[in-house]
Structure formats: structure tokens, C-alpha cells
């Protein structure tokens, strides 16, 4: 290992990487970029992990702390997605059927409609032509981050949270049902609703990713903002208690948690700003799916004798064997699983990744989401990820106990390419300067379009100007200037900050170093 002195501000010796048993010498520009990055005073207390390997020759080009364990952040999503795709083919499609229980006489169903929730992440929300799913790319942030304080969350253009239930309702009408003289119930027994992970409740029932989105538009100073919200069901409504503030003022918009069927959007939005999105998770997602389905039936002119409010009447569910003996009157079929994984990875959808972990549990025969974590461990072993190098405590990487090492991450990404779904993982990773969470990263870099990676972040502040970045991480692939195909892990843990701008500085420093690697080999 090469030993160099850090800056005077760092006041400490700093170890930087050299190649481990590498045939290719480290290009001076690459070594210089690493030295410059790691010698900055901001990283005096930081641990770095780096492993860069040639995919074609298995030659290790760069290595540092390759066996150390690092907090992962969202790079854990790559492990979770790989594990589920190993159980279900990339072409797998989720089916959400509706069965009738009872006979139809002169257009009237004398019995219940039962909708079977399948754990379909998008459930029509992101559908685009050609069996593909849409996703936001920065500066537009996925709507699931609207409650985190990140700037730029917005609704996906063309998205429709009621698309799937509308399609099913049209099929039910075509089946001859004009009136439901009974109830509508959601069969949510695929797995047990689970809220033991940091990002909220996960359920087999999934409408608008179980979020109420409220978008505010400024009007004139002192006047209420214009507010539009979705999905529109009888179960919830948003009450507008906003005001438009002076131009240049800060937004203080906040959406309350649902209570008694209402969510209150309050606070101020500055004059001249673009639309600002807020959202809140709904409790008991099956009730939202039921209400959405009843509303869709009524839009088709089908009379339903029950109200679309209240909880999901699970007591009316028949046995699963009996249910399947009923007549199917409608079904929504999702885009391929590869598209689900791509959307989750491109936008780094936390609860979407947790949903994948719950579905892993189902594939193991369990209804307990926690059992899905064992599926990640199992898949890691099958892919040659060394033991004790990766630990998953949730599906998204939001648990600060999640760990991996550079060796573990590179083993996963290198070996997954030999599987039937490897190209789908590859295609799902955000591309530097092109799309997803990397759309605005490295726009001026000569490596633009040549690096694709999943990034992760874990940060916490005691105050707004005093905290720590527990993890800033990237794992992925790059094609170098000379045409070499590399796989890499670039992990940074424990960076104190006195301004949130430090977080963006780490990202810039990582991009600069990775660009030097891409250009240097």
C-alpha cells in the first residue's frame, strides 16, 4: 500500500489504494484523482472502500478496504431486485383478478366482487406503450420522495393512479354486470401488511403506491394556492388551508396524515414558484384499493349497493380454494417484472424495493415480509457473494444496519451478468448524465453515458448544520475510454457535515474520481 501525507488541515497520514495483484499500472491521473479526493479535510474521519475489476479478465485494477463492511444506503436495492428476479422470470407479470361470488340475473350480481391484490408495485400508475413503465429523472424526483424535504419531487407525466381499476371495471361491465347487490372486498392475504422497516407500510394492495399526492400552485399573495390531489376516491379528500406567500419566500407546505377521511394541506407557497408536491402514506391500503374499485365501477355506470368508505370487509372473504372456483369477471395484468425493477432502481423507490422483499417471502412460502430477507442471503450465496460480506435488514437500504463490502458488491454485479435476468439489472441502473437519479450528475463529464450505477445515501442531522453522512455509495459498471468493461464499488462512510452542501460535495468528488478511472483505463 502506498502511504502519503494528507493536507495540513487533515493533520494525519492517509492510506490510498494501489492495485492488488494488477497487471495494469495505475495511471498517474487516476492515482492523483484518488489522492486529491481522499486528502480533503472534509474526509478526515471517513472510511473509503474501493474495488474496480475488469469484467472480462477479472483483473483487479484498484482496491482499498475491500473486505471491510460499509453502510449501504440504497445500493441494497440491487441485491433485493436480483434476489426476486432469480425466483421470478424477467417476463413475469402480476395479475390482479376480480371474481364474482354469486349469480348474475338480468345484469344484477347477487353477491360480492372479490379483488385479489397481487403485490403489483405500479398497478397501472406508470404504464407506457410497449409494456414499459415511465419514471422521473432528475431534476424531477419521484413522487414517493415528496415527504422527505428533497427539492423537485413531481408527478410523472402521463401517470394515472386509477388506470388499472378503470380497465378492470370496463371488463366487469362487459361481462354483463350492471348492478352489484352485495359488497366489494379486497383479498389481501398474499402476505401480511408490514410496517417494521423504516419507509412505511407495505401491503399486497397498491394504488398510487399507497400515497395521497397533493400538488399546490401559487395564485396571488395572501390567497389560497390552487390544489389538485390524487387518487380521487370516496375514502379521502384533501382540505386546502394554504396561502400564497411573497416571491422568494420559503415554502412551508405540509400535508397531514389521514384522519377521519381528510388530509389537510397547510402552509405557504411562494409566489412565482412552480408547483410543489406533498404527499402522505395511507393506512390500511386495502381500503384504498376497495374504494378505488367501487369508484371505477360507478364511473362505468355499474350500481354498487355499498358505500365506498370504511375499511376492507375481510370477513367476507371465502377460502382461497373456494375463491378460485368463482367466475373471473376482470383482471389487470402488469408490465413485465423487468420493468418494475427498472422503475424502482432508476428512481430509487424505497417502498417499492421493500415490496420486492415481501414478494421474496411469498416465493419462500411465507406471508411474513421479514422472511424475504433470507431470500437475499440465499441469492447472494448462489451468485458467489462471499459469506459475511452483505447483510440486509430491509429491502431498500434504509436500515442503518444494512452492510456490504466492496468485494460483496462487485461479486454480485459481476456474477449477475451470467444469469437470465442480468441484462435487466444492468439496464435498470441509472446512467451518468442520462437518466434516473443520475440524470444531472456528470453532465459535463467525458464519462457521461459510460457509467451506470446504483447510488445510495444515509445521512442524519442533529441540527440543520451539524450531522453526519453515514453513507454515500455507488456500485455499478463502466466502459472505459479504451473500451474495457469494468465493474466497481465506490463506498464512502462517515463524513461529518456542518452544511447540507457537504452531501452534494461528496457526490461531486465521487463523480470526479470515477470519471478519472473511466478515462484512465
How would you summarize what this structure contains?
By secondary structure, the protein is α+β, with helices and mostly antiparallel strands.
Q: Assign an overall shape.
A: globular
Radius of gyration: 25 Å
What would you call the structural class? alpha+beta
Total of helices: 11
Beta-strand proportion: 25-35%
Percentage of residues assigned to helices? 10-25%
**Distance between the amino and carboxyl termini:** 20 Å
The largest β sheet comes out as: 6 strands, mixed
Got a strand count?
24
**Which segments are poorly predicted (pLDDT under 50) over 5 or more consecutive residues?**
1-20
Average of the residue pLDDT scores = 93
Write a structural description.
This protein is of the alpha+beta class. The protein is built from eleven helices and 24 strands. The strands form seven sheets. Strands 6, 7, 10, 11, 18 and 19 form a six-stranded mixed beta sheet that branches. Strands 4-3-24-23-22 form a five-stranded antiparallel beta sheet, sandwiched between helices.
Amino acid at each position: 500500500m502506498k502511504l502519503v501525507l494528507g493536507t495540513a488541515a487533515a493533520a494525519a497520514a492517509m492510506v490510498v489504494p494501489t492495485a492488488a495483484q494488477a497487471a495494469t499500472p495505475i495511471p498517474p491521473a487516476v492515482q492523483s484523482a484518488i489522492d486529491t479526493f481522499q486528502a480533503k479535510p472534509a474526509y478526515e474521519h471517513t472510511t473509503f472502500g474501493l474495488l474496480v475489476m475488469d469484467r472480462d479478465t477479472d483483473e483487479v485494477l484498484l482496491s482499498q478496504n475491500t473486505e471491510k463492511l460499509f453502510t449501504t444506503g440504497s445500493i441494497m436495492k440491487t441485491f433485493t431486485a436480483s434476489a426476486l428476479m432469480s425466483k421470478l422470470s424477467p417476463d413475469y407479470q402480476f395479475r390482479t383478478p376480480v371474481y364474482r361470488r354469486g349469480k348474475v340475473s338480468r345484469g344484477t350480481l347477487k353477491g360480492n366482487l372479490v379483488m385479489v391484490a397481487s403485490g403489483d408495485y405500479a398497478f397501472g400508475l406508470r404504464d407506457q406503450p410497449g409494456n414499459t413503465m415511465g419514471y422521473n429523472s432528475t431534476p424531477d424526483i419521484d413522487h414517493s420522495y415528496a415527504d422527505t424535504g428533497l427539492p423537485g419531487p413531481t408527478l410523472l407525466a402521463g401517470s394515472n393512479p386509477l388506470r388499472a381499476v378503470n380497465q378492470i371495471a370496463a371488463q366487469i361491465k362487459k361481462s354483463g354486470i350492471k348492478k352489484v347487490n352485495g359488497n366489494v372486498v379486497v383479498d389481501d392475504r398474499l402476505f401480511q401488511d408490514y410496517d417494521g422497516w423504516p419507509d412505511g407500510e407495505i401491503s399486497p394492495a397498491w394504488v398510487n403506491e399507497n400515497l395521497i399526492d397533493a400538488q399546490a400552485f401559487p395564485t396571488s399573495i395572501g390567497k389560497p394556492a390552487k390544489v389538485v390531489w390524487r387518487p380521487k376516491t370516496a375514502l379521502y379528500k384533501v382540505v386546502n388551508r394554504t396561502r400564497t406567500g411573497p416571491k422568494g419566500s420559503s415554502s412551508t407546505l405540509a400535508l397531514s396524515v389521514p384522519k377521519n377521511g381528510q388530509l389537510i394541506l397547510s402552509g405557504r407557497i411562494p409566489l412565482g414558484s412552480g408547483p410543489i408536491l406533498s404527499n402522505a402514506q395511507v393506512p390500511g391500503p386495502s381500503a384504498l384499493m376497495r374504494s378505488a374499485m367501487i369508484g371505477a365501477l360507478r364511473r362505468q355506470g355499474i350500481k354498487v349497493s355499498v358505500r365506498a368508505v370504511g375499511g376492507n370487509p375481510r370477513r367476507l372473504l371465502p377460502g382461497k380454494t373456494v375463491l378460485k372456483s368463482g367466475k373471473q369477471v376482470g383482471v389487470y395484468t402488469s408490465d413485465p417484472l423487468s420493468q418494475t425493477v427498472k422503475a424502482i432502481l432508476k428512481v430509487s423507490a424505497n417502498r417499492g424495493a421493500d415490496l420486492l422483499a415481501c414478494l421474496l417471502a411469498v416465493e419462500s412460502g411465507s406471508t411474513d415480509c421479514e422472511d424475504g430477507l433470507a431470500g437475499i442471503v440465499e441469492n447472494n450465496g448462489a451468485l458467489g457473494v462471499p459469506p459475511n460480506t452483505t447483510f440486509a435488514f430491509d429491502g431498500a437500504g434504509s436500515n442503518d444496519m444494512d452492510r456490504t463490502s466492496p468485494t460483496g458488491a462487485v461479486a454480485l454485479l459481476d456474477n449477475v451478468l451470467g444469469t437470465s435476468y442480468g441484462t435487466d439489472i444492468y439496464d435498470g441502473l441509472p446512467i451518468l448524465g442520462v437518466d434516473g437519479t443520475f440524470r444531472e450528475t456528470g453532465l459535463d463529464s467525458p464519462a457521461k453515458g459510460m457509467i451506470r450505477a446504483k447510488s445510495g445515501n444515509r445521512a442524519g442531522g442533529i441540527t440543520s448544520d451539524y450531522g453526519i453522512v453515514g453513507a454515500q455509495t455507488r456500485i455499478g459498471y463502466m466502459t472505459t475510454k479504451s473500451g474495457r468493461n469494468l465493474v466497481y464499488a465506490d463506498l464512502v462512510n462517515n463524513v461529518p457535515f456542518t452544511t447540507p452542501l457537504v452531501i452534494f460535495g461528496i457526490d461531486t468528488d465521487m463523480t470526479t474520481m470515477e470519471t478519472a478511472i473511466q478515462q484512465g483505463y
